[in-house]
Write a structure and sequence with these properties.
α5 runs antiparallel to α6. The model has no long low-confidence stretch (mean pLDDT about 95). The protein is of the alpha+beta class and about 350 residues long. The strands form three sheets. Strands 1, 4, 5, 6, 7, 8, 9 and 14 form an eight-stranded mixed sheet that branches. The protein binds (3R)-3-hydroxy-3-methyl-5-(phosphonooxy)pentanoic acid (PMV). The site of (3R)-3-hydroxy-3-methyl-5-(phosphonooxy)pentanoic acid (PMV) has 14 residues, from loops.
């Protein structure tokens, strides 16, 4: 299967190439946690693509022996180099032409670097979009979004869900035709109108670096006492959630989304070594959201990444009342009262 992504055609090497793409972050509803082989997921996942939280990457490629430079907001960032080096090594058998180019990579995020929001999904997606744009120029073939997602996955698993579509499913799933462990597939057509412009307000409880890298976290699922049950549950939750997305069934959407977030953290609390990534303020926010939902019937729920920040998900028609809740009760739990207002987006775009 992987071999399908090996370049079959000759390329016409050009002296230089330039492109610029932006790609968003994404927020998983059914979580990917656990992997094997070369970035293959232990269970299928689905996410909403975000809009405002993006990485913008421009790449200039010059013919010559392969190497690269990496700048973030105009400043050389040698600490980013190992991840990009590993990425180029992983993709080189699929895009052998990269060995004939020196790449100058310039990148920036629309969200603060130190916000506790992982930029690996958006950055690996943006870089893969640039690589595939070059490949399309060199081969004369149309842009291949499946290969773009395939390459992004080799950089960072969840990045493969940041390329195309408002909702993206990644990982083999019996109830989803065309699903693959190798790349994400666009599931936008699933979404009931209630999910149009769906909001994600990210409450920044802790802006620090991640306590547990996702590489370490995924690894902890090997030999985890509950791993097998968790992976099975993810398949079932995905089937149920897809039905809820289609029917606009917010009650089920909320039940599955919140349960998935807590399960992700439960897996970390029950691994060896064990971690608690939520902070007291994370729990205070969750309690406030539950109380607000009970008192107002506003269908707002939370999800979590592998950290303390809280993503609040809700239909756009309730933006005003949720804004008030944040202003009156939740902002005080955020570091420097900071939060980011985002919503569902459509994926990577050429700038
Ligand atoms: O793509 P990675 O290896 O950083 O893993 C991301 C894992 C979670 O964000 C916790 C869940 C997910 O599905 O995005």
């Amino acid at each position: 299967m992987e071999d399908n992504f090996k370049l079959g055609t000759e390329v016409d090497l050009k002296e230089s190439l330039t492109t610029k793409w932006q790609a968003p972050s994404n927020i998983a509803l059914v979580k990917y946690w656990g992997k094997h082989g070369v970035q293959l997921p232990a269970n299928p996942s689905i996410s909403f693509t975000l809009d405002a939280c993006r990485t913008i990457t421009s790449v200039h490629a010059r013919k010559g022996s392969h190497s690269f430079s990496i700048r973030y907001e105009g400043v050389e960032k040698p600490e980013f180099a190992p991840k990009i080096k590993a990425y180029f090594e992983r993709i080189s058998s699929y895009c052998p032409w990269i060995n004939n180019y020196y790449f100058e990579i310039d990148t920036q995020n629309t969200f603060p670097h130190s916000s506790g929001i992982a930029s690996s999904a958006s950055s690996m997606a943006a870089l893969s979009a640039c690589v595939m744009d070059f490949e399309s120029t060199l081969t004369g073939n149309a842009l291949d979004y499946h290969k773009m997602s395939f390459l992004a996955r080799l950089g960072s698993g969840s990045a493969c869900r940041s390329l195309q579509g408002e909702a993206v499913l990644w990982g083999e799933h019996n109830d989803t035709d065309g699903s693959s462990n190798l790349y994400g597939i666009d599931q936008s057509e699933l979404l009931h109108p209630v999910f149009q412009h769906f909001q994600d307000t990210i409450l920044l409880v802790d802006k620090g670096e991640k306590v547990v890298s996702s590489t370490v976290g995924h690894d902890l699922m090997n030999n985890h006492a509950y791993a097998r049950a968790r992976f099975e549950q993810a398949h079932e939750n995905l089937t149920t959630l897809k039905k809820a997305l289609k029917a606009g069934d917010l009650k089920t959407f909320i039940k599955i989304t919140e349960s998935e977030a807590l399960t992700l953290h439960a897996m970390m609390m029950t691994s060896h070594p064990y971690f608690i990534l939520m902070k007291p303020n994370t729990l205070s926010i969750i309690e406030e959201i539950w109380a607000f939902r009970k008192n107002t019937d506003v269908p707002v729920c939370f999800t979590l990444d592998a950290g303390a920040n809280v993503h609040m998900l809700y239909p756009s028609e309730h933006k005003m009342s949720v804004d008030q809740l944040i202003h009156n009760k939740l902002a005080k739990y955020c570091q420097n009262s900071h939060y980011i207002c985002d919503q569902i987006g459509t994926g990577a775009k050429k700038c």
